[in-house]
Design a protein that fits this description.
By secondary structure, the chain is mostly beta strands. The protein is built from three helices and 24 strands. Strand 12 and strand 13 form a beta hairpin. It binds 2-acetamido-2-deoxy-beta-D-glucopyranose (2 copies).
């Protein structure tokens, strides 16, 4: 009985995957897909960033390392790590969150393009920074429950990061029956004063934020509220917030697109025919919250916490559940 049920639902998954692939080929751009495969047993590239010279992607993975893509013959190599007590012997290839306090769990990455410093949020070690030679990162601010997203605004050097919760950490999220609360925050780190200030509170399932290319505002996704908020940094509405976009699915991460003033939002949409399945998409939106393009990401079906990063006419997609970075090209 149980076995039959399993195979039926697997068949359904197959059908839906084929349906998505077919729809993708017929009607959308970014239809060519390839994988940048992580080293053996390494998973969870929740970020994919490029440096000032266009090298990368750099990815933060579940075993506590930040890896850099060196091209197809070499693959990914070690670049940096966040925990002073991390050893390669104990940590390489692990995804055991019980080891997180020893191995680290960097989650999101963002370069300051003026200084070439790489800023890192780590679920155990808060905010860190590492120079362009990599190695052990330096902690700038700690003592938080669970830092998730990050975006550096390179003109001022200000760092915007999101704190998922005041009450739960990354380890709590894997416990049965876990539900995120509404105590997430948007924070700012000022490198001149080295102080962290709170910009926005009461966020529900907050993901990776993104500052607009004109530096006037920052967008903040709330995946539990199925909405994106806009926090104004400049202009007449400075220091105020407004709802920017709703009804777009469940937004996980936002990144600036190559076109000035546009963003890529990684969202999950419930599959109509099968509510247990969530189907990820990349949405390209502009500063008026107009959705300009929707790209299905069928290879990431049912993988949570995706990120969509545009670079050189390609979309690089990472996920907390994959053992690869996906690259979509036209
Ligand atoms: C690293 O290990 C030492 C010795 O066990 C311990 O005192 C220290 O707190 C650890 N550091 C971190 C950041 O966990
Ligand atoms: C966003 O796109 C819409 C539709 O093309 C356009 O009308 C609007 O002016 C755009 N907004 C911005 C800020 O570019």
């Amino acid at each position: 009985m149980v076995a039959m049920k399993t195979s039926c639902s697997l068949l359904l998954v197959d059908l839906i995957v084929w349906f998505l692939l077919l729809g993708n080929v017929l009607s959308n751009e970014y239809t060519t897909f390839k994988k940048l495969v992580l080293p053996p047993s390494v998973t969870g590239p929740e970020s994919a960033v490029f440096d000032r010279g266009g090298e990368g992607p750099y990815v933060a993975v579940a075993d506590g390392r930040i890896l850099k893509w060196q091209g197809p013959t070499t693959g990914f190599l070690d670049f940096a790590f966040t925990s002073p007590n991390r050893t390669k012997k104990l940590c390489d290839g692990t995804n055991d969150l019980k080891l997180g306090a020893i191995c680290g769990r960097p989650v999101a990455l963002s370069f300051n393009y003026k200084t070439s410093d790489l800023y890192i949020t780590d679920a155990f070690f808060g905010l860190l920074v590492v120079g362009f030679n990599g190695g052990l990162a330096t902690q700038l601010s700690g003592g938080y429950k669970y830092f998730s997203g990050i975006d550096v605004e390179s003109y001022t050097g200000n760092v915007y990061m999101t704190d998922a919760s005041l009450t739960y950490g990354i380890r709590d999220m894997t416990k049965p029956g876990f539900k995120p609360d509404s105590t997430g925050r948007l924070l700012k780190y000022d490198p001149r004063t080295q102080r962290v200030t709170v910009l926005l509170t009461g966020l529900s399932g907050v993901g990776g934020p993104s500052v607009s290319s004109d530096r006037k505002y920052v967008l903040v996704p709330e995946y539990m509220n199925n909405q994106i908020q806009r926090h104004w940094l400049q202009g007449p509405k400075k220091d105020t917030n407004e709802v920017f976009l709703t009804d777009c699915g469940s937004p996980k991460n936002i990144k600036r697109a190559a076109n000035d003033g546009e963003f890529w939002v990684a969202v999950e949409k419930q599959v109509q025919e099968s509510p247990m399945l969530s189907e990820p998409h990349g949405l390209r939106v502009n500063g008026s919250a107009t959705v300009l393009q929707t790209v299905p990401l069928p290879q990431f079906l049912n993988m949570a916490h995706n990120v969509v990063q545009e670079s050189n006419d390609a979309l690089y997609v990472g996920s907390s559940h994959s053992d690869f970075v996906g690259v979509y090209t036209n």
